[in-house]
Amino acid sequence: MNQDTMKQRAAEAALDYVEDGLIGVGTGSTVNHFIDLLATIKERIDGVVSSSEASTARLNEHGIPVLDLNIAGELALYVDGADESNHQLQLIKGGGGALTREKIVAAASRRFVCIADESKLVERLGRFPLPVEVIPMARSYVARELVNLGGTPVWREGFVTDNGNLILDVRDLEIREPIGLEQEINAIAGVVTVGLFTRRGADVLILGGPDGTRTLTAN
Ligand SMILES: O=C[C@H](O)[C@H](O)[C@H](O)COP(=O)(O)O
């Protein structure tokens, strides 16, 4: 079974968490499956807050109403993918560069259901290069600070985020204390968002695999 089919299975299982009202959606190939499925029950929901221009375009194609977060207020549910999750449901996100808006919408939601194929579950975060969104003029400065933290930052050249910023992908980081590292990197001048989701990790993780799905919940 290929990885995309496992992502689709996780997205299908997430439909069970959808209730009436407003929901938030993330970005990426797994969420794209979820958006396509959401279209089949769009009469049940009042609208969606989107975390990226790409997801907004897909929602628009399906005729699903997209709302501004400032008008929506608190959301009951946020559904998004991840690049990695540990067993505490702390995440690395931002492989698609949408981390800042994703973190905002996740923070504004009561429940975060993360959907992924089973390869995303790891014992320790950090095999996936950690994305960091930076203000363009701060790129070199932030990169030097990340080297001081033991990382090897690589500029994602040619990529501009929906917010007009740049991404540094940081390799070689020993992520022993994800909560502390999220705070430390976020405190560097010029950093907009680090792709560690620890203070607001997932509440539920649905993993698609060859034999179906399994669900982990945060303690
Ligand atoms: O910026 C992108 C997001 O954080 C995605 O949720 C993440 O990269 C996972 O994407 P995919 O579902 O395509 O594996």
UniProtKB/TrEMBL annotation:
Q: Which CDD domains match?
A: RPI_A
Q: What Gene Ontology terms describe what this protein does at the molecular function level?
A: ribose-5-phosphate isomerase activity
> What's any GO biological process attached to this entry?
D-ribose metabolic process
Residues recorded as binding substrate, renumbered to this chain, are 27-30, 80-83, 93-96, 120
GO CC annotations on file: cytosol
- Active-site annotation: 102
Q: In which pathway does it act?
A: Carbohydrate degradation; pentose phosphate pathway; D-ribose 5-phosphate from D-ribulose 5-phosphate (non-oxidative stage): step 1/1
InterPro entries assigned: NagB/RpiA_transferase-like (IPR037171), Ribose5P_isomerase_typA_subgr (IPR020672), Ribose5P_isomerase_type_A (IPR004788)
Question: What are the protein's UniProt keywords?
Answer: Isomerase
What catalytic reaction does the record list? aldehydo-D-ribose 5-phosphate = D-ribulose 5-phosphate
Q: Which top EC class applies here? A: isomerase
What's the Enzyme Commission number for this chain? Answer: 5.3.1.6
Family from the record: Belongs to the ribose 5-phosphate isomerase family.
Q: Self-association or partners: how does it assemble?
A: Homodimer.
Q: Which HAMAP family match?
A: Rib_5P_isom_A
Name of protein: Ribose-5-phosphate isomerase A
